[in-house]
Amino acid sequence: MSEAPNPTGPALVELLGMVAYGELLAFDRMAADARLAPDLHRRAVLSEMAAVEIVNYRRLATRLTELGVEPAEAMTPYVAALHEYHDSTEPKDWLEALTKAYVGDSIADDFFREVAACLAEPDRQLVLDVLHDSQYADYACHEIRAAIAADPKLANRLSMWARRLVGEALSQAQRVAAERVALTVLVVEGTGDQAGVAALFKRLTAAHTGRMTAVGLNN
Amino acid sequence: MSEAPNPTGPALVELLGMVAYGELLAFDRMAADARLAPDLHRRAVLSEMAAVEIVNYRRLATRLTELGVEPAEAMTPYVAALHEYHDSTEPKDWLEALTKAYVGDSIADDFFREVAACLAEPDRQLVLDVLHDSQYADYACHEIRAAIAADPKLANRLSMWARRLVGEALSQAQRVAAERVALTVLVVEGTGDQAGVAALFKRLTAAHTGRMTAVGLNN
User: Helix or strand or coil: residue B212?
Assistant: First the structure.
């Protein structure tokens, strides 16, 4: 991102609301995914990772309250889009759940990291902190690689699944971008212009492709 | 309980394994119940309470590891019984979820508190600490009372639901008692004899009846 326009007001609240709801949903989804775990040990690991998201949620909710905004109110605009995304991409098993976390969380984290660059302190650091804390993608990466090494046929099914996830995520992202004007303006201004937005998408896509290759999936 | 026989070995591991699995399940169930919450604020509150259970789980798992036992191994014997209990008592809405937490968690906590009295330190304090930390029952009590005050007809449906919960819980508890011999011996020795066990059940029942009355439900 080319500059830090120091946004306050609507754009900051929209961003923090989105990240906060993302944490609450990440918690929810990891807790649900834990039920798909093939053994008690993995289930406990995932449950412990889920609990970390709540600590992050609390930090974001506290910051929103400081800014004079009810956290629930700031999160509400994202409920429908994220609900639809998750409803249309319900994992059927443990590996689909892991792939979803690996693909989706990583793209979301990359995006938020770019947007964080548009923020002033303390919000920039707050967003970077909560993103950094997410361990699920690393764990998922490790598990997916091991599963594909043990059964190479899995790569095809999981690659198709990953493509579907990206498609659904993009369609909900467009919806959010159209509805959250202040946030969209922040991203466009932060990247410079329309060409900057295109460059941002190119970076996100390249990083995604690299991650797919890293675990043995095809883009 | 009449004495503290200072159990080590199988009974202690069986008890800590049961409490640890209880925490993991409480987390799981509260995370699932959060999805039934009527608004984002309540959903966040419940998610934050769920995360506390994981901190407790970690303490118990660490203690089991210290005792040379793999936590997953110590928890495994309780998976089937608790799974069946929860499967047969899936709440259909937010108030059923709250009632289940209020009724079930409170009876379980009372029982574990009695059994903790049979333990030596540091395990006695550990069990009491993790029980004390459970805030869901108090929260549920408050919400149920408010809901019944607003709509007294609810009391009948929730009273029937509570009776079903107790029935299912007792049938699974009998199964665990028959399978976990060391733990059952600990409870019988801790209470003194068969009459002591009967007195224990009487105390648990009396406390349950008191809690039902407190929120406006019939036993």
Answer: helix
Q: What percent of chain A has pLDDT over 70?
A: 95
Q: Could you tell me the end-to-end alpha-carbon distance of chain A, in angstroms, rounded to an integer? A: 26
What six digits make up the tokens of A6? 């120091």
Q: Residue B28 is nearest to which of A31, A39, A71, comparing CB atoms?
A: A31
CA–CA dist A14, A23 (Å, integer): 14
- Could you report the per-residue pLDDT of A129-160, keeping only the tens digit for each? 998 766 778 888 899 999 999 999 999 999 99
Q: How far apart are CA A16 and CA A126, in angstroms?
A: 9
Is B32 touching A (CB cutoff 8 A)? Answer: yes
| Model pLDDT for residues A56-99, shown as the tens digit of each residue | 999 999 999 999 999 999 999 999 888 888 888 989 999 999 99
Q: Which numeric CATH code is attached to A10-215?
A: 1.20.1260.10
What letter represents residue A27's amino acid? F
For every residue of chain A, DSSP letters joined together read: --------THHHHHHHHHHHHHHHHHHHHHHHHHTT-SSHHHHHHHHHHHHHHHHHHHHHHHHHHHTT--HHHHHHHHHHHHHHHHHHT--SSHHHHHHHIIIIIHHHHHHHHHHHTTSPTTHHHHHHHHHHT--HHHHHHHHHHHHHHH-TTHHHHHHHHHHHHHHHHHHHHHHHHHH-HHHHHHHHHHH-SHHHHHHHHHHHHHHHHHHHHHHT---
Q: Which of A28, A43, A48 sits opposite B31 (nearest CB)?
A: A28
Q: Considering only CB atoms, which chain A residues are within 8 Å of B41?
A: 70-72
Residue with tokens 């690299």: A210
Q: What is the pLDDT of residue B2?
A: 44
How high is the pLDDT of residue A134?
66
As a whole number of angstroms, the distance between CA A57 and CA B195 comes to 50
A120 CB near a chain B CB, below 8 Å?
A: no
Instruction: Write the single-letter amino acid at A65.
Output: T
* CA–CA distance, B160 with B168 (Å, rounded to integer): 13
User: Residue A179: which residues within 8 A CB-CB, separation 6 or more?
Assistant: A77, A81
Encode pLDDT of B16-37 as tens digits.
999 999 999 889 988 988 889 9
Q: Is the ipTM of this complex over 0.85?
A: no
d(CA A184, CA A76): 17
Q: Where are the domains of chain B?
A: 10-215
**Residue where the block lists tokens 């390249």:** A206
